[in-house]
Amino acid sequence: MPDYGNPIRFGVFPSPEASGLDETLAMADAAERGGLDLIGIQDHPYQRRHLDAWALMATVLARTERVGVFPDVANLPLRQPAVMAKTAASLDVISGGRFELGLGAGAFWQAISAMGGPSRTPPEAAGALEEAVEVVKLMWSDRSSVCYDGDHYRLSGVKPGPQPVHDMGVWLGVGGKRMLAAVGRLADGWVPSSAYFPPEKLPAMSERIDAAARDAGRDPARIRRIYNVMGTVDGSGEGALQGPPHAWVEELSRIAVENGMDTFVFAPEEGGVVQVERFAAEVAPAVREEVARRRGRG
């Protein structure tokens, strides 16, 4: 796979568990101090132990000044896309352009339906996500009013606004063939997770995105590649994303240059704030340097 040449960025993926709020906010503060670029918050409204993702994201934005925030990824079946578009744009305005929108088709359908949401088949979930991207972008447009007539969502002359204050992206956390093609046609970013899609699976998935982008007349390099990476820096576990900092630097640099991923959002398996600090100090800057070196050599 190509290296698209995009800037290399880093983030952190703290838990939204209510019982761990102090540590979650401390991890966000560590990301801000450490020069990381993003904080991703998972969105599972049916999870009784979790805080509401959008309330937590607003809180994180309010206590930081530089770092960006995004839902990693928003639960579409329980969040109406036109209203979510307005909330996302509002957070972008309030934060001075520090919000991005990650969307997911949904999972855990029994829990979603128990909370009053739909129970969708895989084709229905894919179709709803494709429609949602279109609805969100209409709601961010500068048109006086917008209409949309889909199988899952409709707009009937609604007046969009406010608009985001920066060129906010819509990133999709997907893995199936149909939805990877939808990333290429419609979206601004792709958000896979190493727990579900290890590095060796990325090239074939990315190629499907690129092919769809080219067929749609889009430049594949304009699609950001955000990789959620789970592990422990200096851990004793087995696997590609374990071990001391130099092992992380080697692996993430290889994934960036060989697989085209440009953003790494770190979810520490243990250690919380200490792990975030170590990732920010010993991994992120070294990966940037190594990728620059390999790009120069290449």
Automatic annotation (TrEMBL):
Pfam families to which the protein is assigned, alphabetical: Bac_luciferase
Gene Ontology molecular function: oxidoreductase activity, acting on paired donors, with incorporation or reduction of molecular oxygen
Cited Gene3D superfamilies: Luciferase-like domain (3.20.20.30)
Coiled-coil intervals: none
CDD domains the UniProt entry points to: Tetrahydromethanopterin_reductase
Segments forming domain Luciferase-like: 12-240
Transmembrane parts of this sequence: none
InterPro entries in the cross-refs: F420-G6PD/mer, Luciferase-like_dom, Luciferase-like_sf
Identification of the protein by name: N5,N10-methylene tetrahydromethanopterin reductase
Organism: Streptomonospora alba
